[in-house]
Amino acid sequence: METLRDLRLQAKKTCAEVAKVLGVANSSYYSYEQGVRRISLEQVLLLAKLYDCTEREIIQAQLNSCKVMK
Hints:
With 70 residues, the protein is mainly α. It is 70% helix and 0% strand. The protein is globular.
């Protein structure tokens, strides 16, 4: 089960790098990875491009991140 954190690590990016691309604070991106906050559609598109995967994979990773926290 891949999470947003897994995708970020595979892309060899730091939270700070990804947060900058999304235009959010580091803490905001971290909360996306933890499943505390949801990402917007625009952010899904940016992450798919950054991580070289499909939008569906980003959405599934976000859902998996939420499940990990439960």
